Request: fold
Amino acid sequence: MSDKIKTIGVLTSGGDAPGMNAAIRAVVRTAIARGLKVKGIKRGYAGLLKEEIVDMDTRSVSDIIQRGGTILYTARCEEFRTAEGQEKGAEICRKHGIDGIVVIGGDGSFNGACKLANLGINTIGVPGTIDLDIACTDYTIGFDTAINTAMEAIDKIRDTSTSHERCSIIEVMGRSAGYIALWCGVANGAENILLPERYNGDEQEIINQIIENRKRGKTHHLIINAEGVGHSGSMAKRIEVATGIETRATILGHMQRGGSPTCMDRYYASMMGARAVELLCEGASNRVVAYKGGDFVDYDINEALAMKKDLPPFQYEVSKLLVR
Ligand code: ADP
Ligand code: F6P
Reply:
């Protein structure tokens, strides 16, 4: 164990994700078990710059593993994108005796962590985002809860859509990544899945399919649309005019980011939080924890940020075959 690390900080940053609390709990409890002190930094980098720093003990993370959101709050912070902001942040860490920080968030937050590492504060990233869009890891905290929340909501919409023999467009989160749409599209048996990475904008093709399906006796038509494709309301109006079939749009929105985390999110978050503390104790810095090939591993943050992720081609092709 590195004798350099005596006190660690933990913060959550960017969009919240169910399971972040389980990760915070794991960081606090495994660090204390190793004889370290832990400080919670509220509101991400914004809170760091305002010195919103509190001591944490094992009891301060009691009764949170089952709760969505993040007890440390989260924020976005423009000032931290500047060199001055980053230097101020590193200085505040030193002032509070923080030798290392665990940053729970997405790619943007890891960029910030990398800057702190360059200024001598040991940093470890933990992937927390419902979007599953971090290239170095097969799992991100919050994804499993979000897809289950969305899937249950879509099932409900399907009931009413079928009763009215309507077409329904359901917009799920994912500004630049279509994983939530792909998984829900398959799990909810959608007729169309529109993904930011793949959608070619050919609305006429969808209209033709709806008309064809109606002729073949299908009573409803579900379209799962990712936030990154968007325009669900206007798309619904155009489809209704072109097909003569009543069409409704529902935007699921931020409900997908809330709720009690699933077992999977609690478990992965607990392991990832614990691994982050272990890495700090080993003297590591500028690393991100990842789940890869069935194991909890870690990557250099710069290498992780340079990695590219695309939808698995096989999964995408299968999603199109299931809608006959
Ligand atoms: P996420 O971590 O979910 O991807 P954001 O992209 O909103 O979320 O990033 C969260 C925060 O991380 C930003 O508000 C900013 O404070 C910090 N951040 C993002 N990019 C950088 C960067 N290039 N340099 C320093 N800090 C950054
Ligand atoms: O958390 C991921 C995400 O849902 C993205 O898909 C989306 O672009 C973003 O959050 C929106 O976040 P907010 O509404 O908090 O700005």
Summary: The two ends are 57 Å apart (CA to CA).
